[in-house]
Fold:
Amino acid sequence: MPHSSPTNRAESSDSEEWVLLQAADSAEPGTDSVEPGTNSAESATGSVPASDVNGDASSRRSETDDEPLVELMPDDVPAEATAEALVAEPPIAPMADAQEAIPESHDAAENSNALPVATSVVEPTNPIPAESAVTAPAPLSSADLSSASPLETTSVETAGSALVGAHAAPSSQRPRSWLFKTFAWCLRTIEFSFGLASLVVLLAVVSGFPLLQVLVLGYLLEASRRIVVTGKVRSCVPGWRRAARIGSLALGTSLCLLPISYLSSLAEGAALVDPGGTAETRLRIGSLVAAVMLVPHMLAAWFCGGKLRYFFWPMLAPFQLGIWTLQWALASRPIRSALDETVGRIWPSLVHDLCRVTPITDFFLPAIIGKHLWRGTLWSHMRDGFWDFLAGLKPFYLGWLGLRCLIGSIAWLVVPTLFLIGGTALPEGGAILTGAIGVVMLGIVCLYLPTQQTHFAVEGKFYAMFDWAASRDQILRSPVRHSLAMFVMLAFALPLYLLKIELIDPDLWWALSLFFVAFSLPARWALGWAYARSSRREKRSWFIWRFPVRTLALAPALIFALFVSVTRFLSWGGVSGLFEHHAFLLPAPFTFYF
Structure:
């Protein structure tokens, strides 16, 4: 590859880049320098670095794979397991005028639209043999980069994850037979169900805290945005794996603390009956022994990732070790050869799955801890894993997204709400007029505000909350779907007003918020689905079709606005309850303290 010209060096403003270019010019013959804008790691594999897709590698890794609180080291995956994930290329003949040659994947990556990262000097490398040659993935386009999710999962994020992602499972680690695939599907279904339930409970608990309620609104907007960006409804629950991990941590910790608290309560009861007696002494000693045994066990489960099975590893150990020993025996050379010659001729995929041995340091808790003790990475592993998990939750992103949407939605709703309040405060004649105007205005806002919020979530700019022309254009492209999504959102919000009749203890708001979150999530999914379908269309629907559809959609919007105007006589907050608008604002029963 030719060296950089003096003109290019003069135009460079970075002193470090100038030093690197000087080193490239003074290198020995046969040393190849990389053009400015090409990273050395990128030139070796032909892939785009993971941190360049959206600027946050931890957010992208979290959704594609099951990421524990503290992950295993990347080198835990055996080399034999990754061999099948690499696509071989024919060997490259050496260059005539150099001792070493650069593989074709390097030139292909250089000529493609690779992302500029830094300027570096690459030492001469030997030709890559056919066994280790890697096919470079297709370069990412600007459209893919603009649609990349700040939180963790799109099709763009998983491109090339087998090359650069430490969490991508090799193809040989995936089941091939339908028997093992069915079993894996059942496990994923159970995990997803548990993660979804944990997510709803977690959002309900967060919505009970006034200053954290914007996080719930931001998550609902992110759920709609995911559907629009990916075009897939199955992307509607971002972060469910992390929610499942938090749920397993909470459940496992509660089960570990249950015997300790039970023995402590018995000791307190015995102290009331016979202070200083034998029963009290034995119970307190028993609670102390239980704490000494269960607290380290709980901390070890936290360190290994907090999966629920780690809290029950003493009971599961015989089954886990028995299955691992059986697979290890089946994978031995004589037995594997016999299986290939018998069962393998009929069902080779089953033989592959039976002989697929998982490293014991990937699932057995004592082996995981022993590995890190041997390497001396116990504390660093736990610290880095915790902060990576916490950063993957994206609290600042969700909070900022929800806060801006809250401010913009209030600007949409403040005038109709004031007219509705005027229907109570003004004299009889003016009250009827202002109340009717408020109902009509709120009905019109209900036609456009749901789509406007989804448009803001997709664009990520505050001005999008008031870009009425863009949201209206989306509605006119698919009026039926947007009208249906609006109807679902309003219908799911109506029963929630009945839960605000009486004020309950603030400590129980999270229990009441379960219904608000459970009813708000499907509504946001419907809005994201409608927006995603309308975004694929380039032209609006016919006027003779969209006009009657939108006219009919005005009827449920007016009914909803009329119902909201009446709730001031039913809600505990009275007139102030009209400002809550939990269908569009914060999904919480009582938000007047916010």
Remarks:
- The radius of gyration is 30 Å.
- The chain has 25 helices and two strands.
- The longest helix spans residues 240-273.
- Residues 178-207+239-309 form one domain.
